[in-house]
Amino acid sequence: MAMQVALGVCRVNPNPLMTIKNVSVRCLATQASPKSKTVQDKTGKNIVFVDGVRTPFLPSGTGYQKLMPHELARHALLNLSRRTGIPREAVQYIVYGTVIQEVKTSNIARDSALCAGFSERIPAHTVTHACLSSCQAITSGIGLIASGAYDVVVAGGVETMSDVPIRLNRNLRSILLKMNKAKTPMAKLKLLASFSPKYLAPELPAVAEFTSGETMGKSADRLSAAFTVSRQEQDDYARRSHQLAHEAHEKGYLTDIVPFPIPGSSKVVSRDEGVRVSDPEKLAKLKPAFIKPHGTVTAANASFLTDGASASIIMPEKKAKELGVKPKAYLRDYIYVSQDPVHQLLLGPAYAIPEVLARAGLTIEDIDVWEIHEAFAGQILANLKAMDSDWFAKTHMNRSEKVGVPDLAKWNTWGGSLSIGHPFAATGVRLVSHAANRLIKEGGRYALVAACAAGGQGVAMIIERHPDASM
């Protein structure tokens, strides 16, 4: 309880959530019951998600390690056009997300589009919103369409963690910049005299939260402790994610993947390569990765560094009919939230889900498909317990009662970020694509997509299956 008080989330409903061991690991196809509820179109455009594609997601340092981000993005953009049959010249605007930015392609949306053969007359801009970046790309596109500025928008994201920008030490950078301005040899010598060998140590991209200085893994460990999420619960959930992803691959459900030929080799990557179904005994033997020796987050129940790219195309329903394409889903509503980045860093879904349901006039029971980003197994289970807590709802969300727990038989049934992988800026489109495809496959009507992100932020989106949708 002392740990719970320190985290600011003490007195969470002590009744444990239904144990993950009781959740089936089979891919379930659930036929939704007819629903009379209609979600209002707030844009006046009935904006639709036509389709989404992605490269296979690979662990960083493997198959994509010699590639630059724009090469992955180019592949996704090219295959989006091929998949949908929508000519590149019909696209009017491109929004792309990235988090760890490659300095040579400062506007990767524009550079990737040009490399993919899109017209030089198509504007493009890059967004960054941590793990929500391609959700931000999609919702930025919604805004552009709703405003009447454009009709056909491509939204996506790309991340390459195999090659991240490494900077010279700040002190050394300062000396070099001053050297460039020095007027006399004496001034340059004086600057050189201030040099220290320790200035040769490079600066890597930050892996800790700026506001707290704490890594996300440590935050996940503390969050798991605060909500009394056990190590076994986390390992069981992680194994479920890998099992479901494996089955989805084997059954051919992951049709958003477009095979990627590795340049300079004969290898063609056609599936996500981070999926590993391990024995429970092996998972139990892994040591804590962040808080040692008593932490519960391990390499197996946390998402891994991943390379990959995704792309989608959205437009008004009227425009889709003009182009002769069948959309997969309506993009009905969305909301972004933010909360305490220290003690509640990863609770974005718990805050965003009730808000977006209320905006859309829906309840948990109305949702047929849940696609939720899995940063850590502990994060997922803590969010579920927060959603099942009246105390949390009243104390932290100004709500009279809890929102409740979704049916886990409808939750990430094709796997999630723990198994499929998580290229930071590409995951949002993957979530929406899987949600749309599952609605079609499972005969559902409404899907909810949600994710947490660095800085204590989160997103939730409501999508509705289009009546003309097909796989």
From TrEMBL:
It is found in: Mitochondrion. GO terms for biological process: fatty acid beta-oxidation. Keywords: Acyltransferase, Cytoplasm, Fatty acid metabolism, Lipid metabolism, Mitochondrion, Transferase. CDD domains: thiolase (cd00751). Pathway: Lipid metabolism; fatty acid beta-oxidation. GO terms for molecular function: acetyl-CoA C-acyltransferase activity. GO terms for cellular component: mitochondrion. InterPro entries: Thiolase, Thiolase-like, Thiolase_AS, Thiolase_C, Thiolase_CS, Thiolase_N. It holds the Pfam family Thiolase_C. Residues 326-465 form the Thiolase C-terminal domain. Its EC number is 2.3.1.16. It is an enzyme of class 2 (transferase). Residues 47-317 form the Thiolase N-terminal domain. It comes from the Eukaryota. PANTHER family: ACETYL-COA C-ACYLTRANSFERASE (PTHR18919), TRIFUNCTIONAL ENZYME SUBUNIT BETA, MITOCHONDRIAL (PTHR18919:SF153). Belongs to the thiolase-like superfamily. Thiolase family. This is acetyl-CoA C-acyltransferase.
